[in-house]
Amino acid sequence: MSQQTRTPIIAGNWKMNGSAGMAQTLTEAVAQGITSLDAEVVLIPPYPYLSLVGGAMSPSESHFKLGAQDLSVHDQGAHTGEVSGAMLVDLGCHYVLVGHSERRADHHESNEVVAAKFMAAQRAGLIPIVCLGETLAEREAGQTDEVVLGQLDAVIRAAGIESFERAVIAYEPVWAIGTGQTATPDQAQSVHASIRARIRDNSDTIGGQVRVIYGGSVKPDNAQEILSCEDIDGGLIGGASLEASSFLGICQAAR
Ligand code: PEP
């Protein structure tokens, strides 16, 4: 399946930033700017602002969606501080990140925990955006594909290849996140092609359909060359999603 038939997706991960006022203003500015885009645009604010951001999205823009940054592996019960997939659906979420490198590093989330979160998301009816990526040391040791495909294989083993009909994969080299150091288009395309080939090895159809997006210091001035790569179907944007003009500039590059 050609890239044209995979709708591009640009997702803004606000991480632990913002305030209620900022969430309102930023969402309204993005809502005004994205009319008539061909890309799907997803805002991923912190949990406390999900409802506010969902309410500030224009209901007429069906390609403007809400996402969350994480969820519990559990569906309900005695898990203080956790947030279930069903609760995120209640708040209007369509997507949820799983396995962001900051969760893997700060909360020691293993490949198995990430796979469990991926399945919890799908049980609740959410589309997981599963994040994969190598550290600088792993890249320098020539282990990039081994690490990234190992992270992917853990999810395929646990959830089955069919689950990728309702999932998005984000390749985010850890050394490029929030550092201002972006993977070159060749570096990114090469890993994206490996990811798609691994999915294709399991199912040719799903390999052609699944969207694989890139994250790591994407800005308006480098978005075009990254997003035009054959196997790159959009971006997961951190820092640049906190300002409407830069986020919208990236969205324009994805059309
Ligand atoms: C991210 O938060 O996933 C990310 C890619 O951040 P940044 O764009 O700031 O590198």
Task: Write out key terms for the chains shown.
255 residues; alpha/beta; TIM Barrel; 8-stranded parallel β-barrel; 8 strands; 43% helix; globular; binds phosphoenolpyruvate
What does this structure look like?
With 255 residues, this protein is an alpha/beta fold. It has one domain: TIM Barrel. 43% of the residues lie in helices and 16% in strands. The chain has eleven helices and eight strands. The chain has helices at residues 20-33, 50-56, 85-90, 101-106, 111-124, 136-140, 144-159, 185-202, 204-209, 220-227, 244-253, and strands spanning 9-13, 40-44, 64-68, 93-98, 127-132, 168-171, 211-215, 234-237. An eight-stranded parallel beta barrel has the order 1-2-3-4-5-6-7-8, surrounded by six helices. β7, α10 and β8 (234-237) form a beta-alpha-beta unit. α1 packs parallel to α11 (244-253). The relative contact order is 0.15. The model has no long low-confidence stretch (mean pLDDT 95).
